Structures are given as structure tokens and as C-alpha cells.
Amino acid sequence: MSLRIALLGLLSFSGPASGYDLAKNFEKSINYVWQAGHSQIYPELAKMAADGLITVEAEGPRGRKIYTATREGVDELRGWLIAHTPSDPVRSEYAIQAYLLQLLDPLEALAVLGRMTAGIEAKLKGLEELSAVKRSAAEQTRFGTYALDLGIRHAHTTLAWARDTATAISPEAVEGRNPGETGSTDAG
Amino acid sequence: MSLRIALLGLLSFSGPASGYDLAKNFEKSINYVWQAGHSQIYPELAKMAADGLITVEAEGPRGRKIYTATREGVDELRGWLIAHTPSDPVRSEYAIQAYLLQLLDPLEALAVLGRMTAGIEAKLKGLEELSAVKRSAAEQTRFGTYALDLGIRHAHTTLAWARDTATAISPEAVEGRNPGETGSTDAG
DNA sequence: GGAAACATGTAATGGGTTACATGATTAA
DNA sequence: TTAATCATGTAACCCATTACATGTTTCC
């Protein structure tokens, strides 16, 4: 359902577009918040057309099909936005690892948390750069910025959590982790 | 893969257990972080047994099967914890709605954000109550608490984001939202 | 005897990822 | 002519949800 809504939304923003256009557009906007590749998008567009939510307005070169949202499609989108209460099932591999960390000894657990921290920092850096680019280029819609903002905030939260958890597991070990020291050879 | 790991983890904590036990246990622990029902757990256990990660140690009354992790299972779990970098694909209906809100007029958008806020507040309340219960009952493992903590932090973050976004859309309208006023009939 | 909880499964369906497959157009 | 990019699809497989289906034990 969400994919359908996302595609209807993109069509509403951009006007008539092909599956290829939508896939490209998806990749650099909603993608930060919901993932889908062309192999999922093309069949979904076919189903949406069969359901009367969109129509093939025209066919261009190379078999390019131009879709437009129908009245039903617009209604569907508006109805979902206004009436649908989002579900937010948490499905976090980070949290699973956190839950199971006690099966490792403290030093191993700290190493795992260190890897987590690095991963989240990298992701956060990417999102923030993107945010800066989009803001300056003004290529981004106002609300697209808000979605990106949510992503950045969540990454910050996860990062802070990983650091605090590391501290809770072993305060001394974490405090000893200053730049230039690895803490692996000299314990004192 | 994650389900497998979660089940191996639960088995490691509890010792030998049946699918039923694991499903119950799952529901009140990892469930806040990764969801799976019995209809997913039973087949997965069968596959894990076929793959040599667990074995049926004994059979109890009512066809109850008691599983234990094998050496391979323990290795698999430890290997995943130590080597696997968690993926955290964001798949948030909240964010999709945020992205598409500009298709509504500001008053409609505010109503949607209000519903979001209420939903997240309810969820947060549930998680925090649970956290209090678990802390007092000491029934919770130390790291299970950390996973729950992550859930609570994320909910807080989403809530703050929803409020800030509402303010950004329409500062006046949001400031006017005091208890006792609905703001729907008298526009001020 | 009947309800509740124990205990285990399968089937149908939907959603998502990866890989496979094909062909047209454009620009170097 | 050949590489890049445009453009569209299918197939195999995995994971997840909901509903269906069955039988046992315990307790009232």
C-alpha cells in the first residue's frame, strides 16, 4: 500500500511521468524514507493502472509509457493521507544486537558497539551532507526536507544511545577511549 | 536471518525450550524491537533444526518439542554478533506522510500531524510503563532494558519531530492549540 | 461437560530483494 | 562501433501477516 501511495504522491508532484522517471525520482527523494527499486515499481504501476488509479496517457520512444494519476488515484492518495494512521513497526537489527550483547564478554561487546557507532556516524554524515545540498540547491520540496530531518534526528538518537550504552557496559573502558589511544594494549 | 539469530539468542538465555515457550518469550522481550508470531517461528525452528543449528532434545506432553542450540548454533550466533554490521533500512509511514503533506492544505496537514502526535504519545506511554514494570520486577535482562531504551528514545524523537514540523507549517495555528480550545469553529 | 490455555502446525497472500533478460537511442 | 544510458519487464526466492486447522491438558 505504501508504495502505491508514494508513487501517487510523486506523480502528483511531478505531473505525468514514466516508470523510469518515477524510479529515478523515487531514488533521490522518498528513498531515504522508504525503499523500492524498478523491479518493484514497474509491476506496481501495472497493478495501479489495472485498478484505475493511474492511466497510460501516452507512449513515448523506446516503449516509454507516460502515466497520469486519475481522479480515483488522487482520491485514494488524499484519503490515505487524511485517514490512515501510520503503523511504525520497529525492526531494528541494532536493537537485536543490543539485546543479545550480554552473550559476549564486555570487551567483545564494546567492540560491537564501536562498530555500530562508526556505522551510524557514517550514515548521519551522508544524510547531513544531503540536507545541506538540498537546502542550498532549493531543489527539494519543503516537506521532503522534513522527512529528511526525521531521518537525521533518528540517526542522532541511535548514535547517542549507542554511546550511552557503551558507557553503561563499561564506563572505564569507554572513558579510556581517547584519540590516539586504542586501549587494547595498555590497560592502565 | 534476524529471526534465526533472535531465536538462538532466546535459547541461549533460557536454555532448552519449546516453540511455544520461545514464541511467548519472544512476545514479551524482543518483540518490542523485532516482530514475529508463532506461524513464523515454528517453521523457522524446523528449518534451523534441518540446518543443524538446534536439535530436538526431548519431546514432552502434547507433542511439545524441546529444542537446544547446538555447537553450530552457538557459533552462528556469536559470529553474527561479532561480525554482522546491522542494516537499518528506514521504512517509515510517518515519514511518507510527512513527505506528502504538502499535497494537503495547511489545516488538513495540521490535523494529520495532530493524529500522528497522539499515536506516538500513546505508544510512548506504553513503552514507558513497560520500562517501569520491568525495572521494578527485575525480570528483564540488563541488555533487554537497553533495547527498550532505544525504542523509547526513538519514540521521543519522532514525537518532538512531529511537534516541530507542525510548528513549522503553521506557527500561529499550533500556538493557538491550548487545552480547552479545539480551534475548529472559532478561527480567532 | 465445557472453557481456557497449551501446543503445533499449514495455506494463502502480500511485499521486497536480487538476479536475469531484452532491446532502443545517443554520443564519443 | 561500441559504450553509456534509457527503458521495461520477469523469475526466483525470502520474509512476514492473517487466517485456517487440529488436537491435548487442566481446571472449574
List the helices and strands and how they pair.
Two copies of one chain form a homodimer.
Chain A: H1 2-14, E1 17-18, H2 19-27, H3 38-50, E2 54-59, E3 65-69, H4 71-83, H5 93-100, H6 106-137, H7 142-169, H8 171-175
Antiparallel strand pairs in A: 1-3, 2-3
The structure holds a DNA duplex (28 and 28 nucleotides).
Task: Describe the fold and architecture.
The structure is a homodimer of 188-residue chains. In chain A, strands 1-3-2 form a three-stranded antiparallel β-sheet. Mean pLDDT of chain A is 85; it is low at 179-188. The first copy, chain A, has eight helices and three strands; from the N terminus they run αβααββααααα. Chain A has two domains: 2-83, Winged helix-like DNA-binding domain superfamily/Winged helix DNA-binding domain (Arc Repressor Mutant, subunit A, Orthogonal Bundle), CATH 1.10.10.10; 93-175. The first copy, chain A, is mostly helical and 188 residues long. At the A-B interface, helix 1, helix 4, helix 5, helix 6 and helix 7 of A face helix 1, helix 4, helix 5, helix 6 and helix 7 of B. Chain A binds a DNA duplex (28 and 28 nucleotides) through helix 2 and helix 3.
